[in-house]
Amino acid sequence: MAEKTTSIPDYPRGITFEQVWAALMENREQQKETARIVEENALQQKETARIVEENALQQKETDRLVKETSMQIGGLNNSFGELAQHLVAPNIIEKFNELDFDFTKCSLNVKIKELETKKNLAEIDIMLEDGDVVVLVEVKARAKEEDIEKHVIRMEKVRGYADKHGDKRRYQGAMAVAITDDSIRELILRQGFYLIEQNGDTVKLTIPEGFVPREW
Question: Tell me, which fold does domain 83-206 have in CATH?
């Protein structure tokens, strides 16, 4: 009967147990470092996602504040416009009647609408009326050139509306301003508008020599 033998693995010669153990430990440390880096990257991604979400919430809040502020400013503008009209209106009839007008009616915030479409054709801050003449007054805290141009267009629209409905009265324009300068003052008068300016607790009509009001 043949004798049974056991083979022994042929390990590389010259490598000690301590070297093999050291290599295993080094590999283990590398795996631990890799795991730490993966975990750190995951935490960084989580932090990045948190920052993105936080920025989105901040942007949403900023948008809300901007919208709210715009509404508040709009409300202040409307309040100022109404205040200006009520400051101008009580004295304006008296000032115009000193120029031999005979105004008996003063209306605020007049809206003229097309009968067919019901759309606003023009909005008038103050409308003065007597039997033959209508003066449309635009009230501004600080008038700009474009405000003057818009009032010219407004006058033309109202004139067209009046003609369409058989209104033969003469239409004139005026601008009431709280703050102005010489250039704007000149532009207002050049367009043939009466200029109404603040004068202490009341208002005054600025009418230079040779001024001829424009009629529509």
Answer: Trna Endonuclease; Chain: A, domain 1 (3.40.1350)
